[in-house]
Every structure is written in structure tokens, then in C-alpha cells.
């Protein structure tokens, strides 16, 4: 979400956040923006200790999420499937 805000396409940019709980207890999180930039997780240990950004996709992955993305129009949708506390994926 922070990347979408920081690296948005400027004037006329948009950002949509969708949260969708599933019946199995998992949560689908989607971020839609109009930036054509490809989402790239930082390398583990590749972000400086004082850096204010660069860890988002690593943190989401650490929660056990399956992250995918797709180009949509001029932008993209990044989707994370967070498993339930029981580990459902």
C-alpha cells in the first residue's frame, strides 16, 4: 500500500484497497493502482536499517501470504492471500 502511495502516477492517479474475508478464515487483500511499475520485493537484508520503506512485500510474505500481481489497464492489481490462524491457504 505504501509503495502505491509513494510511487503513484501523479495527477490523475488512483488507489483502491479491497479486503475480502473468505469462508475458510483467510483474508484476500488487493491493492489496485495506475502505476505501471512492477512490484519487486527487496532482498532479505537488502534494506538499510534506517530505511523508511522497502520491506512491505517481505513482511506480507513473512505472514505466510501468497502474493500475486497482474497488469490491469495502465496499472496493476497486487493481491495477497493471508491464511487463517489455522494455516489455511
Task: Provide keyphrases for this structure.
89 residues, alpha+beta, four-stranded antiparallel sheet, 4 strands
Molecular structure report:
It is a single chain. The chain is 13% helix and 33% strand. It has 89 residues and is α+β, with helices and mostly antiparallel strands. β3 and β4 form a beta hairpin. It starts with a helix and ends in a 7-residue tail after the last strand. The mean pLDDT is 82.
State the order of secondary-structure elements, H for helix, E for strand.
Answer: HEEHEE
Helix content: 10-25%
Low-confidence stretches: none
What's the average pLDDT?
82
How far the N terminus sits from the C terminus, by CA atoms, comes to 22 Å
Q: Proportion of β residues?
A: 25-35%
Biggest β-sheet, characterized? Answer: 4 strands, antiparallel
What would you call the shape?
Answer: flat
Radius of gyration: 14 Å
Oligomer state equals: single chain
Question: How many beta-strand segments?
Answer: 4
Instruction: Report strand order across the widest sheet.
Output: 1-2-4-3
Secondary-structure-derived class: alpha+beta
Count of DSSP H/I helices: 2
